[in-house]
TrEMBL record:
InterPro entries: Peptidase_M20, Peptidase_M20_dimer, Peptidase_M20C. This is Aminoacyl-histidine dipeptidase. Residues 208-293 form the Peptidase M20 dimerisation domain. The keyword Iron does not apply. The keyword Metal-binding does not apply. It comes from Flavobacterium okayamense. Transmembrane segments: none annotated. The gene is pepD.
């Protein structure tokens, strides 16, 4: 399958992407891809550095005639989000991504593709390996762990880079040039409880929410997509209120930066309510499906009897507070920006809910381009979860990237885009977490910009990269390199 991708144009880009996608590269498990990148740089004969947290820096001198241009940092992250369909058998720790061509799109077979941010990494690799592309001195920066904490960018110390301009290749619409982004903070609520024995004369059920689109919890948070954890909680709340439903287990969602696509719960009800429970639940299911018929046409909610009734359940009062706290906890857009049209300022994703074995955990990712608003929403979530008796922690906080409309490199990119495409690029700030804001803390004078090819469905198994957009983007990159301002 990868040979089909390798034959695409531009071959330099797609071949490096195929090489990269053969290497397992989960967030926080980047040892193999770090070794791969170190070996790549050394084989080219360039100065190749691994810093103390695992970021890789490869330095390539300017091509002839470009020595008087400013040194640039080309930056992308090595890790990728790992999501797969429930019916897909795949081991992200050991297998390379299985790609195929579908019309104008490159896709993966039942998993995320890794175009976020693999196409950016592959772009830089192709430039480093090239012998006929004019460019100034380049410092290629490959960061780790962008998707689950941005610890690579946070750990990059000042003084390692000399570049005056940073090209971040990690956005996903080819007609956009990003000059700002949101920051984020992880909100985690945990609690322990004493399991109770399931009452006699109980019936066990498994409730499954599946078939949702999922997607990027920043870039797609405004699209009205279904959140499996919130949908599941509606069902559990109604079952508890109307039939005394008791929860045994919940397993919903997987990653903080992915809108949860699936949730599974095991519950019990009194045998006397058996028929009425199924009938009433089907009415609620029909209502939910009607609400989401446009944005989630493939939503499935399945209620099936268990052969064996769960032995242990959540205590009644713990369950009372859990379903109410999850109902109260905000999910989705919290505030739109007052400064940029159609830009989400602040949002939250209730990403993961796990209950069972005496332990309860709720994991959220709160994003905002305004630091005070970020913590306003985080504190609202803290309050809801603390009222139910949870211990709540904030972690992994990272700053946003404040737009600089007077950027010199922005002027270069907008002029090139208009010349090549006959229309103006959209200069925007985005509601995703880019590393620019963090990198700017230790390199405050660096002029930063972010752009990339069109990628749809990032952070979900529907992730796909546009072939025609990659060609447009590659042409854009080459012209940018040839027009970096003089020192």
């Amino acid at each position: 399958m990868s040979q089909e991708v390798r034959n695409l144009e531009p071959k330099a880009l797609w071949n490096k992407f195929a090489d990269l996608n053969a290497v397992p590269r989960p967030s926080k498990k980047e040892e193999r891809v770090i070794a791969f990148m170190m070996d790549f740089g050394k084989k080219l004969g360039f100065e190749t550095i691994k810093d103390e947290v695992g970021n890789v820096i490869i330095k390539k001198p300017a091509t002839a005639g470009m020595e008087n241009r400013k040194t640039i940092v080309m930056q992308s992250h090595l890790d990728m989000v790992h999501q797969k369909n429930n019916d897909t058998t795949f081991d992200f720790d050991t297998q390379g991504i299985e790609m195929y061509v579908d019309g104008d799109w490159v896709r993966a077979k039942g998993t995320t593709l890794g175009a976020d941010n693999g196409l950016g990494v592959a772009t830089i690799m192709a430039i480093l390996e090239s012998t006929d592309i004019p460019h100034p001195a380049i410092e290629a920066l490959f960061t780790i762990d962008e998707e689950t904490g941005m610890t690579g960018a946070m750990g990059l110390k000042g003084g390692l880079l000399e570049g005056q301009i940073l090209l971040n290749l990690d956005t996903e619409e080819d007609d956009e040039i990003d000059i700002g982004c949101a920051g984020g903070v992880d909100v985690t609520a945990v609690a322990e409880y004493d399991e109770e024995d399931a009452p006699a004369d109980s019936v066990g059920y498994r409730i499954t929410v599946k078939g949702l689109n999922g997607g990027h919890s920043g870039m797609q948070i405004h699209e009205g997509l279904g959140n499996a954890n919130k949908i599941m909680n509606r069902l559990l709340y109604s079952g508890y209120e109307d039939f005394g439903l008791q929860i045994s287990k919940i397993n919903g969602g997987s990653l903080r930066n992915a809108i949860p696509r699936e949730s599974v719960a095991e519950v019990i009800i009194a045998e006397m309510y058996d028929e009425a429970f199924e009938f009433d639940m089907q009415e609620i299911i029909n209502d939910i499906k009607a609400e989401f018929k446009t944005t989630e046409p493939n939503l499935q909610i399945v209620i099936e009897k268990l052969d064996q009734v769960p032995a242990k359940v959540l205590p009644s009062m713990a369950q009372f507070y859990l379903v109410r706290a999850l109902y109260t906890a905000h999910n989705g857009v919290y505030r739109m920006s007052a400064d940029f049209d159609n830009l989400v300022e602040t949002s939250n994703n209730i990403a993961k809910v796990t209950v069972g074995g005496g332990n309860l955990k709720i994991e959220c990712l709160t994003r905002s381009s305004v630091e005070s608003s970020k913590f306003d929403l985080a504190n609202a979530l803290r309050s809801a979860f603390e009222l139910m008796g949870c211990e709540v922690t904030f972690s992994g906080s990272y700053p946003g990237w404040t737009p600089n409309p007077n950027s010199e490199i922005l002027d270069v990119l907008t002029a090139i885009y208009e010349k090549q495409n006959g229309s103006k690029a959209h200069v925007v700030a985005c509601h995703a977490g880019l590393e620019c804001g963090i990198l700017g803390q230790n390199y405050p004078g660096m002029d930063m910009i972010s752009f990339g090819p069109t990628i749809k469905g990032a952070h979900s198994p529907d992730e796909r990269a546009s072939i025609s957009s990659a060609q447009k983007y590659w042409k854009f990159v080459l012209e940018i390199l040839a027009n970096i301002p003089a020192k």
